[in-house]
Specification:
Layout (H helix, E strand, L loop, with lengths): L6 H24 L1 H8 L3 H9 L5 H17 L1 H20 L4 H28 L6 H26 L6 H12 L5 H5 L1 H21 L6 H8 L6 H10 L1 H34 L5 H25 L5 H21 L5 H15 L3 H11 L6 H27 L6 H22 L8 H9 L4
Helix pairs in contact: 1-6, 1-7, 1-10, 3-6, 4-5, 4-6, 4-18, 5-6, 5-10, 6-7, 6-17, 6-18, 7-10, 7-14, 7-17, 13-14, 13-17, 13-18, 13-19, 14-16, 15-16, 15-19, 17-18
């Protein structure tokens, strides 16, 4: 099936979904303390916010729903309506005056994030030229890195004591008056950060609803084959090749994501407790690390369609393992070890298994249940990552006393991802999706 040469434009429009996903996670994490003080929340309240958010259960539930909806009604159906749900969730957070409103906002936003992810990756692959599919997936991953960069920067600028906090105070005074408590005023910095996500979501919605439907989906629909939700679930689980592919991709993504999800949520905390740096320095180190991830991903985008996928995959995981070997050998109590860890983890993020999970996940399944299969795997990975986050806090300890033990756990997980990826990496570079499907599943799909 011939692809147009305009895939870059549609890729950028769809990749904004990844910006909004990562942005929602970082915005939620960075503002937790402010909401805790404003609403008088307990640690249990904060635990529930994290558990049902875009980082965990909300996205997991949304992904399995959105994946099969994209296969039933089309990728454009998701783009037409899903970001309206996202904007509703963000608006609830912005206007929250009590815990139920805040909880509902986090849940709705998280579900919307999950709904959008499998449709986005699927659409990018289906609309890409054969020799640009890897590049376009990398562009979507760059968007995933730019989101945290921008949100971290805004969070630091608008936070109490930040360079733009006087503007936050002025906005708060115009809304609640001059006599408001410091906690009421301070939380406006988080409200403004979420407002930035609302604006980007509105722009993305206008761009995405103007996209054409995926030609792959239209071709499958034109064949008149059943594509109901139950039909696709039945076919997915009854096809041995599909089941093996789900297992392979789930393993390489899950084992890496168990490490990455902890880093995404706890990294500034780790820098402060295990590394002994200030909160401001920890946030700047995190910002620099995300900048490295974006830069290395850009380099990967130039190479991925021209060189061995397995080679890039191995390079990324060796960088990840090197980062954690720094922990168990040099440690992070000094600046050299801390910066070596931060830089190496940034490098691995630019050639991580998530890139290949997104790429291979959209290549190794037929269009009939391509998004549904990705949604199922995303559900498994984000759900188990939520549970692992709770386990990690017990291993790590209150002040990082268990960090070395945690590091060995991370090394073991990354080694599994490396070995399974080396053994199972497919040879799909530069090939048409139809050819890959025909080779793996025959002519019935």
């Amino acid at each position: 099936m011939e692809k147009s040469n305009g895939s870059l434009k549609s890729t950028i429009a769809v990749s904004l979904t990844n910006y909004l996903d990562a942005g929602a996670i970082v915005a939620g994490a960075s503002g937790l303390t402010l909401w805790k003080n404003y609403l008088g929340l307990s640690e249990m309240h904060l635990g529930w916010l994290n558990f049902i958010s875009a980082n965990c259960l909300g996205a997991a539930v949304g992904a399995i729903i959105g994946g099969f909806l994209a296969d039933k009604y089309g990728r454009k159906f998701i783009f037409t309506y899903n970001l309206l749900v996202y904007m509703t969730g963000v608006l609830l957070i912005m206007l929250s005056v009590n815990f139920p409103m805040l909880l509902a906002g986090f849940l709705i936003t998280g579900i919307s994030v999950g709904v959008g992810v499998p449709a986005s990756w699927t659409y990018i692959s289906e609309s890409s030229e054969n020799n640009n599919r890897g590049r376009n997936i990398c562009i979507s991953q760059m968007s995933w890195g730019i989101g945290p960069m921008v949100i971290l920067l805004l969070g630091m600028l608008f936070a109490p004591g930040g360079y733009l906090f006087s503007w936050v105070e002025a906005v708060a005074a115009s809304v609640v008056g001059d006599g408001a408590s410091s906690d009421v005023v301070n939380v406006f910095s988080s409200r403004i950060v979420f407002l930035s996500l609302f604006i980007v979501a509105f722009i993305a919605w206008n761009l995405q609803r103007g996209l054409q439907e995926s030609a792959e989906f239209e071709a499958t629909k034109a064949q008149g084959k059943k594509n109901g939700l139950l039909d696709n679930i039945k076919v997915l689980f009854s096809n041995n090749i599909a089941v093996k592919t789900v297992c392979f991709l789930a393993v390489i993504y899950l084992t890496w994501n168990l490490v990455a999800s902890v880093m995404g949520f706890f990294q500034p905390h780790i820098y402060e407790t295990a590394g002994g740096v200030t909160n401001e320095r920890a946030n700047w180190m995190n910002f620099i690390q995300w900048a490295i991830i974006v830069g290395v991903t850009f380099i990967t985008s130039k190479l991925i369609d021209k060189t061995s996928h397995k080679g890039i995959y191995i390079f990324g995981l060796l960088a990840a393992l090197s980062a954690w070997f720094v922990i168990v050998s040099v440690g992070v109590n000094g600046p050299a070890g801390l910066w070596a860890f931060a830089i190496l983890w940034g490098v691995q993020g630019g050639a991580s298994p998530q890139i290949f999970y997104a790429l291979w996940g959209s290549e190794l399944f037929p269009a009939k249940f391509r998004a549904g299969a990705q949604g199922l795997m995303f559900f498994i990975v984000r759900g188990l990552s939520a549970l692992w986050g709770l386990i990690f806090t017990y291993i790590y300890g209150e002040n990082g006393e268990g960090f070395t033990i945690a590091a060995y756990c991370m090394i073991a997980l990354l080694l599994i991802s490396l070995i399974v990826g080396i053994v199972g990496a497919p040879n799909t570079r530069g090939r048409a999706l139809e050819d890959i499907t025909r080779e793996r599943y025959g002519n019935d799909y």
